[in-house]
Amino acid sequence: MTHPVTLPLWAFVLIVLFAAVTFASHFLFPSVRWFFRKRAERVIARVNTRLARPIEPFKLARRHDMIQRLIYDPEVSAAVVEHAKANDVPEAVAFEQAQKYAREIVPGFSATAYFTVGMRLARWLSNSLYRVRIATYPREALEELDPDATIIFVMNHRSNMDYVLVTYLVSRAGALSYAVGEWARVWPLSGLIRMLGAYFIRRQSRGELYRRVLARYVQMATEGGVTQAMFPEGGLSLSGAVNRPKLGLLNYIVSNYRPGKRDVIFIPVGLNYDRTIEDQFLIRAAKRGNRRFRPPTSTILHGVFTHLWQRVTRQFDTFGTASVGFGQPLELSLFLDTLDGDDPTEAVADELMERVRHVVPVLAAPLIARLLLEEDGLTREMLLDRTTGCLADLALQDMPLPRRTPQEQVDDTLARFSKRGLIRENGAITVTEQGQDVLTYYATSIAHHFDDPVERPDPAVAEVGDPARN
Fold it and tell me: What is the domain-level CATH number for residue 162?
């Protein structure tokens, strides 16, 4: 018993390693998990005291538990059986596939990450890149909402800054859960996005099993009262206009509603910018007729370093104004009672997008771009007169308008357009060849306020199996 035993070094290292792991799993890890769990509970209790809508228990459930609940849901189980029969595979294989989809979709919300890292980053980014303004806010209607209802913000999609901007502006209302596409499924970004409560969707999935798993997650989150935000257009607007909605996510919610269930209240949100960061990529994608506008890494790095240099040398003065308009809420239970034989999902989608269009803010850059395209050769004085007249007409229609004076809007916008080479000014103002496309993109964002047809609709590139469409 006391004789020494000779072991190879590699065997000794393995024994020590296994002993360390066993010690940690039995004694250290539970203590660490308990410490962070107690800290998270204190954060949630503190945050809930200042939120208009406290964080829902559904959202706080452990990710593993949510995955298990989803894959053993009766509807998902039925879909697994159907998938196995249709594809002639064992049910165990189909179940494993459903489990893979569930792990891919379900987020792992962290209140600490959301309210300490996420909120601060959203606030800093929004205010450092733009002058942030709320154009319309129906305070009375929003304060009278049923506190037990599920709130879903429905927005037009102009820029990837939409996520950041709306998260920042509704931070006192609650924690938002977004549906994000494949662009965010990149390590380590995917882990952070999951902690912020977003769930992943495959835009081009053709599988019925995948759509059933996604539908049940969205329905369970809605039934659980999770505050959500969605972009019914399904992707960034390539033309600048508010496009027709895709019905996938909306259909999952509307088709699952029954009288007596928790009500669903949609809040329309209209966003607009004096400048979107991605405008050149979106314009080129619209010309090509597809949505492949992922910029090369070298272009991104060049843009980042240029921006940082402008900040260091104090040459950067924001990208102008970013404005958000909140519209009149749509209560699903009341709206469905008004329908007479119409397809409920399509009717809800059309009504929501109409309300979104109504509250898209009219900003200086889109308005002046419109005026410059309407009449070539305007002088500054003529442009100021037309801008003043347009703003007066829009004010009579109760449109969300810029706060600055017409003179400030004209001077600031012309300086920005000239710096980008979009116009030339030599007594009269001339739009350059490059400026024609860019100014059209911005002018189109407010064309619906003037009853204009959409000049350049987004290319219809959605696949038949796109869950955001079907």
Answer: 3.40.1130.10
Chain-centroid distance, C-alpha 415: 31
Say how many C-beta atoms besides its own lie within 10 A of residue 396's C-beta: 7
Strands (E), 286-335: 321-326, 330-331
Q: Do 341 and 409 belong to one domain?
A: no
Q: Is pLDDT above 70 for 412?
A: yes
Helix (H) / strand (E) containing 272: strand 264-273
User: By the 8 A CB rule, do 328 and 310 touch?
Assistant: no
Beta strands in 17-87 (DSSP E): none
Question: Are 211 and 328 found together in one domain?
Answer: yes
Query: What's the distance, CA 391 to chain centroid?
Result: 30
Measured CA to CA, the distance from residue 108 to residue 174 in angstroms comes to: 17
* Cβ neighbours, 10 Å, residue 313: 8
Gap between the Cα atoms of 461 and 470, Å rounded: 14
SS3 77: helix
* Strand pairing category for 330-331 and 264-273: antiparallel
The helix/strand count (H/E) of the chain reads as 21, 10
Indicate whether 352 and 406 sit together in one domain.
no
Residue 71 binned pLDDT confidence (cut-offs 50, 70, 90): very high
Is-contact 380 351, C-beta < 8 A? no
Strands (E), 141-220: 150-155, 177-180, 199-200
Residue given tokens 């992922």 in the structure block: 294
The residues, ordered by sequence, that sit 6+ positions from 395 with a Cβ below 8 Å of its Cβ are 401
- Alpha-carbon span 30 to 47, nearest angstrom: 25
CATH number at residue 419: 1.10.10
Q: Which of 132-136, 259-263, 298-302, 456-460 has the lowest mean pLDDT?
A: 456-460
Give me the count of residues in the chain. 470
Residues 339-352 as b/e (b if ≥16 CB within 10 A, e otherwise) read: eeeeebbebbbebb
